[in-house]
Amino acid sequence: MEEDKYAKELEVAVRVVHVACALCGRVQERLLETSNDHVVSKDDDSPVTVAEIFGVQNVSIVAEEDIQTISKDESASLLDSVVNTVNESLAFASKYGLQSPETTLGSTEVLEAISRCNSTGGPSGRYWVLDPVDGTLGFVRGDQYAVALALIEDGKVVLGVLGCPNYPVKTEWLNYHYQHHQTMAQSSQITPDTGGKGCVLYAKSGSGEAWLQSLIDGEKMLEWPNRARLIRVSAIDDPALATLCEPVERANSNHSFTAGLAHSVGLRKQPLRVHSMVKYAAIARGDAEIFMKFAKCGYKEKIWDHAAGVVIVEEAGGVVTDAGGRPLDFSKGMYLEGLDRGIIACSGVTLHEKFIAAVYASWDSSNL
């Protein structure tokens, strides 16, 4: 039956993201408690951490990370940390309804797992798209980050899962977490019953439904679908009442152009500045209404930075296009080729049309 299509893939993807969130949570707590000896830099100056590890045998995966950094002789201690953390997390896989390996993994097996994430995507076939730690700067600072996993088939995103380990289930706890992210290790004691430290969002394309689960804590088991609840985008369509999500990082986005657009459309509320694809989660949950990203010249958007978030926002009732109003094209490989100026995600058609019109009115006078 059509409604059952991808049901198994979605369930497994959600369980895997729960495991990955648990892995990342352990590493983040250790980073906050100790020095950042195991944080290195990627070519684009964002950090790589020991949490960024994932691999599935006989599955085609497009992923951000590779084995180059941790395969070097001088990275032996980093590799040891990766292997130890992976084994520690896999030992608890049964808690999330997944089978744990019969024996612990060695460094060779872990490196082989990472090396399987070598697909380049494209217009045909089925492949998974993974960003194991989206928003690594937020991750090492104890702030927001996301674990993003999407399934693409013949160039179309068919399902997406977004784990947000530090994004509380209850919206009223959101400001608390932002104001006190430097003490995240202490605030991690918040349980789902009192605010929910983190959440997992997921959606299947064409279903018209997006779902949210709380991360499980303590000795609890993940029971599918784990008290998942439907989420919907905000009904606000007045720009004066709308909230804009902004990237924290200035390296790859033009904040001044975004601020100019926001002013011209009539946004008046203080923007919500947050790392990573948590911005898509905020829109899907109704915590914000707009997310815009206009990359600086020469920067190319990667599919793993958007695939999971886009399908979740769309199935929650939102709209995501490039700045020309066209759907994002995930069929061109690892990058969003042919992107018209930037990306605009909105909670509804009315706001989206206002921003598209503002882009056309403002573009010629911008300095992009």
TrEMBL record:
Catalytic activity of the protein: 3'-phosphoadenylyl sulfate + H2O = adenosine 5'-phosphosulfate + phosphate; adenosine 3',5'-bisphosphate + H2O = AMP + phosphate
InterPro entries assigned: DPNP, Inositol_monoP_metal-BS, Inositol_monoP_superfamily, Inositol_monophosphatase-like, Inositol_monophosphatase_CS
Keywords: Hydrolase, Magnesium, Metal-binding
Enzyme class, broadest EC rank: hydrolase
GO molecular function, one term: metal ion binding
EC number(s) reported in the record: 3.1.3.7
Metal-binding is among the record's keywords: yes
Domain of life where this protein originates: Eukaryota
Record: residues binding Mg(2+): E64, D131, D134, D305
Gene3D superfamilies tied to this protein: 3.40.190.80, Fructose-1,6-Bisphosphatase, subunit A, domain 1
A GO biological-process term: sulfate assimilation
Pfam hit, one: Inositol_P
Named cofactor requirement(s): Mg(2+)
Cited function: Converts adenosine 3'-phosphate 5'-phosphosulfate (PAPS) to adenosine 5'-phosphosulfate (APS) and 3'(2')-phosphoadenosine 5'-phosphate (PAP) to AMP.
Family designation: Belongs to the inositol monophosphatase superfamily.
Protein name: 3'(2'),5'-bisphosphate nucleotidase
Originating species: Vigna mungo (Black gram)
Organism lineage string: Eukaryota, Viridiplantae, Streptophyta, Embryophyta, Tracheophyta
